[in-house]
Design brief:
The chain has 171 residues and is mainly β. Helix content is 0%, strand content 62%.
Length: 171
């Protein structure tokens, strides 16, 4: 993927660089790149690659701000989709992998919990727009394993789930 450096900015132009997520002791450039595919990156670079803190504006309207290493998302970041969903978490090898990821959906639902390889997997809690809450185990974005639904009206359902389907009620 070729890119064009539009403007270079010296490190001295950044306010309080010691408080930023910077790679210390490396020759870091801060610049803006416009890629042939229409994506635009503004941030730190090392040897011409996204490394350090920066923002990538995807041509499709999505935006990722966070830490990069060798052109991949690596470390803390925030990812906004053009559809209005916001992901806050830690990336490893370009994928969300963290036990305390936060997702705010466009409809107002909010998830806090584990993600593995960009999928809601492990323990997590979601509060839906209607006020209902599910807390428990997930697999690939579906209720899977032990969990509990707390309905807005006060009712409670505890059980074992398999891909969003209750398979065993626990009293």
């Amino acid at each position: 993927m070729q890119s064009t450096v539009v403007k270079k900015v010296s490190k001295d132009a950044i306010d309080f660089p010691e408080e930023q997520f910077v790679l210390k002791d490396y020759p870091i450039d801060v610049s803006m790149q416009v890629y042939d595919n229409g994506d635009v990156y503004i941030g730190q670079q090392l040897n011409g690659e996204r490394s350090g803190l920066g923002t990538l504006y995807y041509k499709n309207g999505n935006v990722h701000t966070g830490n990069w290493y060798c052109n991949i998302k690596s470390g803390c970041g925030i990812y906004f989709t053009k559809r209005g969903t916001k992901y806050i978490g830690k990336w490893t090898e370009d994928e969300l992998n963290w036990t305390n990821t936060e997702i705010e959906f466009k409809d107002g639902s909010r998830y806090v919990g584990a993600m593995t390889n960009n999928k809601i997997t492990g323990y997590g809690r979601i509060k839906y727009k209607n006020g209902d809450v599910y807390q428990g185990m997930w697999k690939a974005g579906k209720w899977h394993g032990s969990g509990e639904v707390l309905y807005k009206n006060g009712d409670r359902l505890t059980g074992e789930f398999n891909e969003n389907t209750l398979v065993k009620r626990i009293e």
